[in-house]
Every structure is written in structure tokens, then in C-alpha cells.
Amino acid sequence: MKKSILLFALLGVLVFIACSNIKADEVTKASTSNEIIKEKMPPAKALSEDFKKYWYAGKAEISSYQLEQARYGEIRKGTAVLIYVTEDFLPKKQVKADRQNTSNIPVLKLNATKKFNTGIYPYSVMQSIFYPVADNQHAIKVSNSMQEWCGHVYAQLNNKKQFEITSHSYFENEADQDFKLDKAILENELWAKIRINPDALPQGDLQIIPSFEYSRLRHKDIKAYSAKASIQKDTDTNTYTIEYPELDRSISITFNASFPYEIEHWTETYKSGFGPNAKKLTTKATKIKSIKSAYWGKNSNKDEVLRDELGLTNQK
What we know:
Order of helices and strands: HHEEEEEEEEEHEHEEEEEH
Strand content: 35-45%
Number of strands: 15
Strand order of the largest sheet: 8-7-6-5-4-3-2-1-15-14-13-12-11-10-9
Shape: globular
Helix content: 10-25%
Structural class: alpha+beta
Largest sheet: 15 strands, mixed
Radius of gyration: 24 Å
């Protein structure tokens, strides 16, 4: 009888240990899959007093642009808006932090929007970039959404051990995708780097992942392509140009040579349209107006006057 009791007790202990090991293993796997893999990074860029006064004053910088957008082999009139603002970012969840914490990563966020019409139906494009103000690693997150009457598409990159990308589209050949890429320069992140540390913009022969907007509009694979980047310096402005020989595409961004390095205009040239209607065209965006505003609190009807100031009153 005693032997039976001892045997039963021993089996119970073994079962408990086995169950405990399973749970511990599951927790370990979960924590490993969710954690941000720490990389060896260069030292954080020291922020100047001018940077702190401009970007940590509780306001965003909003700049409007007159847009000439190439689409389906023709130039479409529209508007573009660049909204830059600093915020705290959660490194694990990779979303905006609700409260301050020492583990938060300060980022310069860019929400870049475009609106234009193609005949009867409108296009709405938005890209969001979350780039560390420390300027010592790639963007933590990039997302792109595009809506028009045929449907909508969405793509998101999260900076983990590799770039983890999720993409959704109504096109059969794109559909729903989840994949990983080795890390490379992101064209999207360079728009934030210009505002933080333009002297360190990468130049020469490089591997660059083109903007998500371009990849979706032209149905190109999201991956790194061979590119050549250069800077032309003038008296008051600098122009940063990236050329992609394989894509027959180039983009040039002109920004003020002195802080806060506002973006004045940009051009993007590539083949637009499909089949016999395809032709090489240049998209152009020229600044209308820049303002500083805590826009998230400007949501009353009376605040629409700010759209007049930005030249966006007639935006459709």
C-alpha cells in the first residue's frame, strides 16, 4: 500500500514538472518572438538646443504642397502634406506610447499624404515613418496605405531582428503577404533623416528599399535595389538625389541648407502607365505653406481657417 502511495506521488511530481516545463518553454518562445533584438548601434546623435526648441515645443510642423502626380500615363493635379512631429515610441509594441517611460524611444514621425483624382475617381495615399531622433538605427516602423475606388492596399514594416513586412492588396498577385528582408537603407526613412542630420545622408553606390508608395503604385517587389545617391549643394538649398538604374527611376528632394532643413520641393521620375500608354513622366511637389500647430486639438469647425492658410480649402 505504501509503495503504491509513493509511486503515485512520484508520478504526480513528474507530471507537474513536465507541465511546468511545457509552460515555461511556451513563455520563453513567446518572449523571444516578441522581443526587439538589440543591435550594435553607433552612438546617439547629440541633439542641439535649436533642435530641442523647434521639435519639443508641443507643436507639429505642417507643410502643404501643390502636387503634379504621374498616374496612368498622365499628370494629375492634387495636393500633398508633410506632417512632422516628435513623439515617444514603444520599442516592443512599436506604436506610440501613451505615457513617458525610460524604455521609450524618441522618434521624429512623418505622416506624408497625397490626394489627387484620376478621372472620375480619387486617390488617397498616406505613408507613416517613425525614425529615432538619435539617428543611429533604421526607422523602427514604416507603413503605407492607399485608397481609391477599385480598392485599397496596406503595407507595414517593423524593424526587428530583420525587417518584418506585412502587405495586403486587392490584386491577385499581391494579395496577403508576410515576409522578412535583410536590413537595408529605407528610402522612406531618409525623409526624416534630412530633418535631423542631413550631413550624414548616405551617398555613393548603395542598396536601398524604395518608398512603399512607389512599390505599390508600380506593383514592384518590396526589396532592396541597387541605387546611387548624391547631394548637390547650392547657396540656400541642398538637393538629395537617388537614382535606381534597374527601376529607371529617380527622386530628388530639395531642402533648406540651414536648420530646420525644411523640404521645399521634390521631383520623382519613372515610367507611368501600362502597356502602350506607358511613358516616362515626372511627379512634382512645390511648397505652398508651412505652419507650426498642435493640430490634434484643432478639430472644431472654426479651425478650418487653418486649411485656408495651408492652401487646402479646395482639396477634394
